[in-house]
Amino acid sequence: MSFFYEKRDYNYEAFFVDMDFVPHMHEEIEIMYVCEGIVDTKIGNCQKMMAPGELSIAFPDVIHSYRRAGVPNYLLTVIFDSALVENYKLLLSSKQPEYPFLAADQVHPDIIHAFNTIVLDRYWTYDQRLLQGYLYVIMGQILNCFNLIPREKPDFFLPDLLTYLSCHYMENLSLDDLSHEFGISKYHISRCFSQKIGCSFTNYLNALRIQNANKMLLTTELPVTDISYQSGFESLSTFYRVFQQFHGITPSEYKRNMKKSYSLL
Hints:
By secondary structure, this protein is α+β, with helices and mostly antiparallel strands. It has helices spanning 89-94, 109-121, 128-143, 158-168, 175-182, 186-197, 201-219, 224-230, 236-247, 251-264, and strands spanning 5-6, 12-17, 21-26, 29-36, 39-43, 46-50, 55-58, 64-68, 74-80, 95-97, 101-102, 148-150. It folds into 2 domains: 5-150, Regulatory protein AraC (Jelly Rolls, Sandwich), CATH 2.60.120.280; 158-264, Arc Repressor Mutant, subunit A (Orthogonal Bundle), CATH 1.10.10.
């Protein structure tokens, strides 16, 4: 998975994952259902600590993020092109939920049945029209629960900016560098991070670097020093300080705890 403005290769994906995902957006609809654990979810200007049985939806080109709240979580994520629910395409481009979360008692049994069919049974692989039918059921039941309001349009440069950061986060970047690259005031860029993405430029850049370090800790046997520098940190002490801020534990403890968690699934 990528952590920026995503250009996806498939019109439908569904997967179970232990989610910890920095602010990002893409052209597709993203539905997330909490199976286990607690996840701090932010969609646009709305934020909620989601518990098991609860559901969220991010409309196309809406910034959203997920943060693990202490213990590992187990989330079902379904991402699909709005062309698969063509009848909702105009609505999706002009409206957005006032509050994009459903409590457990608002999640209709038809949604759970559709999830089980398209994610677990995968009957739709024989005929994509079946997939579209189940997605219409899911979207219809979800949208019936929402108060829809006119949607805000993101700043025109945000997709390019987030894509640029995803490719250059290992470099020594500053707001001045971004201002020069995009020809936009560094103060305007800074306001976009705080108002649209919900964190400072520095925190976003560090989140990208820590996300890369997380992946390297779990998929390689490289020393922590190498992981630190390959993730864009200029010193090991800075890496340890930022890692502690994000996770509350050291990189070695994170690696040990996560491998233990995965072995229990």
